[in-house]
Amino acid sequence: MADELTHIDAAGRAQMVDVGGKPDSERTASARGAVYMKPETLALIRDGAIKKGDVLTVARIAGIMAAKRTAEIIPLCHPIPLTHIAVEIALDEDADAVRISATTRTTGKTGVEMEALTAVSAAALTVYDMAKAVDRSMRIGDIELVEKRGGVHGDYRKES
Questions:
Q1: pLDDT tens for each residue of the chain, 160 residues long
Q2: What is the rounded distance in angstroms from the CA atom of residue 119 to the CA atom of residue 104?
Q3: Out of 129, 135, 142, 155, which one is annotated catalytic?
Q4: Which of 36, 49, 52, 56 might form a disulfide with 44, Cβ 3.0–4.6 angstroms?
Q5: Is 129 considered catalytic here?
């Protein structure tokens, strides 16, 4: 049945899904999220005036590093040899936000959705960490899977 919880065995115990019998296929996933803040904080980030350094570059690197280590952070995730990770970060002056998107890719037996979501989450947490001295009221939000391709369950694209 397609709606069964695959990480729970017949006795209700947590288990790692056996993907050994699945064929390798190219799989991609994209996720996004945002960090909302005071306009003054966004201006400091834009102007490179945050004392901890270049917020956007450090957040991008944090996202890439986190995607590579997802299996160490999220219980029951398979370690996946990622073939591509892209983390893009942009300032949204109208919303007083830093927008983050991540795309992950592999050829393997299981998908890379968690890696894309982890990349976005870590990048957002890094923005918060680097700017918290000037704005503790920042809010991380809107983290979501935008698209996934490949695998037995087929493709998914979030409706607008």
A1: 345 667 777 778 877 777 777 778 899 999 999 999 999 999 999 999 999 999 999 999 999 999 999 999 999 899 999 999 999 999 999 999 999 999 999 999 899 999 999 999 999 999 999 999 999 999 999 999 999 999 888 899 999 7
A2: 9
A3: 129
A4: 49
A5: yes
